[in-house]
Protein: DENN domain containing 5B
Organism: Astatotilapia calliptera
Amino acid sequence: MSGTSAGSAAAPCRFAHYFVICGIDTETGLEPDELAALHRWLEADRQGRDPDTASAGENFEQSPLKRTFKSKVLARYPENVEWNPFDQDAVNMLCMPKGLSFRTQADQREPQFHSFIITKEDGSRTYGFVHTFYEEVTSPQICSAMQTLYQMHNAEQTNAASSSSSSSSSMDSLASSLDDGYSPTSSSSSSLSRAAGSYDSSRDTLYVSKALCLITPMPFMHACRRFLAQMHSAVIAATAPPLPLESYVYNILYEVPLPALGRSLKFHGIYESIVCQRPGPGELPLADFPLAEAFSLLGVENLVQVFTCTLLEMQILLYSQDYQRLMTVAEGITTLLFPFQWQHVYVPILPASLLHFLDAPVPYLMGLQSKEGTDRSKLELPQEANLCFVDIDNHSIELPEDFPQFPNKTEFIQELTEVLLSFGFSANTGAPPRTRSSPGSTSSTPGRERKSATLRQLEDDGRNGNLAGEELVVLELLQGNATLERLQALTKRTGVTVARVEALRAGVKGQPTDGGNQTGGEEEELRNAKLNVQLREVFASRFTTMFADYESFVIQSAPDLESWLTNREQMHNFDKASFLSDQPEPYLPFLSHFIETQMFATFIDNKIMSQWEEKEPMLHVFDTRIDKARLYNIRAPSLRSSCYQRCSILKESAQAIEQRLMKIDHTAIHPHLLDMKIGQGKYEQGFFPKLQTEVLNTGPSNNKWCHKATTAQRRKDRHRQQTEHLTLDNDLKEKYMQEARSLGKNLRQPKLSDLSPAVIAQTNWKFVEGLLKECRMKTKRMLVEKMGREAVELGHGEASITGLEENTLIASLCDLLERIWSHGLQVKQGKSALWSHLLHYQAREEMLAQQADSPAPRFLERRKSDSSIAMPSLRVSLIQDMRHIQSMSEIKTDVGRARAWIRLSLEKKLLSQHLKQLLSRQALTKKLYKRYAFLRCEEEKEQFLFHLLSLNAVDYFCFTSVFTTIMIPYRVVIIPIKKLSNAMTTSNPWVCVSGELGDSGIMQIPKNVLEMTFDSAFRPHTHISAIFKCQNLGKLTTVQLGHDNAGLLAKWLVDCVMVRNEITGHTYRFPCGRWLGKGVDDGSLERVLIGELVLPSGEDDSARACRTPPLQRSPSQGRHISITSLTGRDTKLNSAQIQEGIGEAVNNIIKHFHKPEKERGSLTVLLCGENSLVAALEQFFHHGFKSARLFQKTVFVWDFVEKAVAYMESADQVGDLQETTEAMKMTCQSLCHYFNAINSTSRNIGKDGKFQLLVCLGARDRLLPQWLPLLVECPVILQMYEDTAMLRDPSTLNTLISVLETLHDFSITLEASLVKGINL
């Protein structure tokens, strides 16, 4: 990753900054680890126990050999480096994350290697590499202290045996013996025979852990590992090393430079030389951790899934007994993110004392050391709604619910597998990932399976220190032989290696060996380096393909850096909507989430800032690759195609590394004798000597490369300061930069030092501020996007949000609410903190309701609906909404229920009100949350609810559109026009409700549901009301209303139909304003009505004023009356207005088809609603229509069509059509065929309904423009139309035909409710 450390002087040029030794301080003796005590205090606090009693005193229940004792930094060289100040607490904590570890001669004492990383406040990183070994304790005080502890422990055990011991929490037990990390895999018989872990100073030898550590600016893991291993070999060898150890430490600290970019470097360890290399400026940045190991630990598919979670900035917790595995997987995953960088908390090894950090309500990537035999199911984590849990040792992962898959995942995994196979690695797939779908699935692999898996793993896993039986015997034989040992030590010093023994030992110790020319170790290293780079190239090539055109969508709006930084928060830097519209459909679910992440935002910020300052190195490499790809024109043909493109530069990338490692560019100065006092630090086998400080604390004064780099750096600094003076004051700029860069980041890193409760409180305060800021940003973004969208629906400007984006924003709001609710929890219950709180609330309210003996809780308020006379009002109840969710069998988990409840509340515009209600029960909040929790910070909580309240200004359908298969109760109310005589009917009415997701089918309404209500003036009103249940219909579009014409009062004058979704409360009004009955109006017994969403009248005027009008306006009564019923025909439109109306109607249909498929809404409204195609054509046909009353009978447009068709049929029979062309004849036949099909339908749809059907079918089958000339040429037109009629004007008719022909490019699908019963 970014290995560049901040600072000046020789920062870029030294290979290692510090050499550190950690271990036991014999002066202070055995001290219990304060951090472990602090951890116990925190744990007790977490669980609501009294923290002071928990952390007081020592932990006597545990065997002293397993307790944590304080380790100290015994020495560090040099004392301090100006550009990388030494952080003693952090280094000590990470060198020995579980404190000192004691063993006796009966325990296994294999040396261990692990690495760590320290991330500073500014995001720069320093790497540490640690070799831990066991050294005999020579101090009699410490041995006797251990003896005393054992006596106290045994006494305690005897007492405890009588009273049953209480079980401690899982986190507590996990931390209290975190120190069991590397327990022996096969205990020897003697250790089994003696009392478990006992110690007797007269009989046993005591050993304690000691750590040698190198701190470097860049992750040269292999080189450091080999140097430290050689250092340890020199300590345990039978004879002293060729030079004093100071010479080697001095050499690596002061005389070994960092390799230059694109160069390799060779330097000398104690017995063998060590080679390392650094990628060139155009290559992927340095990454030395073996990716093959990460892949083999998790399996390819699991690793890709964890990688996807990392890209989407979820919380990722790695879990393993082995620190190095935690580092390997964490560094492996972050390395693969190129060109992006992880922007949040990054602690690959989380020390026991920092466990409270798992409570952080922010994205994090952390590694937790597991205790051997700890069951995953016992691990209590504060929040799991958005957690990806990676159990490295069991090769399994648990994924958050419903997160999008990485694009082309299958082909991608295939390509990675092939790369691994080409290097001889079996691409095992690991255990299949588990999602948190049901309570049962949280436990890890069932016992027997796990045991056999572990055994298998131990049998064939060289990393666990196991070899095949025969090899082990050979090695034991060789190691037991003193002569052979001496021979081997001798040959090793002269540079010769006994390869077979070394190979065996490498298998056992897990550390590579190395010798002569291209030994096995070097070959292995080369192979690993080549595999690393090829795997990384495959990942990088995915991003190069996906973001090949990202630059086109970057918005460069600021004239200079200063103004950009000042307005950073208000600016849109990336055109997300256009970018997404340019991507292949299958990529969208992933990309729409990814472009909302902090890492993508930072990447775009770096791109914008690169026009004023030097390009960030990773961005530079990425841009170069994109330019190269463009040059070869790789992208153009596959634009918008989801076709998988394989990486084409695998060979080149591996060759570059091979050339560097085969041909060494630079060799460092050899270690040499230093000018030091003789006799100090005398060699003693098995003990690390005390090094001479004065020689190691200062480096050489005349170092050429160091001096060169320093002057270059000074020159650079001077130049930078001059340019800064020209732009703006340096401090001010730094402040801007920090603020701009920390935008959206709540807290980069936990401090590893100074862990007083005050510091922890301050950290929590930062979290609270960060959560509030995030809430403000998210709600603002949701509002701006949504309002922009509604403005577009009204015809202003361009759309800026898609349904997909909206879904992404809502999902991220759900995630934020989960994180807020899990901050500062007293005791965790269930996977979703929010749902758990709701359940507590529900239980309490229901109990109170029972005590009060009232059937429903008291706090219900009623929402009046617009048609308050007809519709009974729907009560507002948090618990009622919960019950709706609980009754949905489709949702299986608590996290799913919480998300569904948030969506429902958002759609009902009750989210803020419900949460306020939930938090108003303060006693409950106090019981569930600690004092520092976000939900107990009064001022922040109020602001948070206010931000959520702002979302009520826009309409969401986020519940209706997501849960498409659930059953929903709908209430239908039919309102007659308010004359009592017309309101009564003796016939049997029926309705069929249709929506975007389907229709309800025909439902008969029983006669006895006629209700009478009185308005405020006590005037009686009757209406028919019924409730029915059916599968979610989505947004409602049409209602078919009809009756069977039975009885004496069969004619019925209907004002409108109201339909309400009883779960979301959305009410739709379907205006009618016409008669249903034979011999009245157009004789229709059924009508298709088009709906509009009704505003709840509960909204006050201010809310109404700021709202945008509803999206669907349906035909009002006025439209029907003005066109078709005789009474309204006086309000005639002129020909220009009619033509404009037709143009607009056709335009709206074309716009409909240009929207993404999932966001088109209802086509029926555009065909048959207000200002629709049918309405516009009715106006056209009515222009100049002779509507004379023949004996009071109304004439309809359908009558004209009927006569025209009758004329054509008779003419065809007589033979008048013989001389017409074949095409004309076909058109004639099609018109007659359609007309007869509509006329002979069993439905009683009336004349206007038939005309509507003819227009819709004609538009669907692209026949409408062909039929019009036929109708005009019929002699009937002369009888029924004036000379001035538009239909008789050839030029107007031709214009109309050409306008209608533009619809031929689209395939029009008619709703089932329109064409029911038509047999064509």
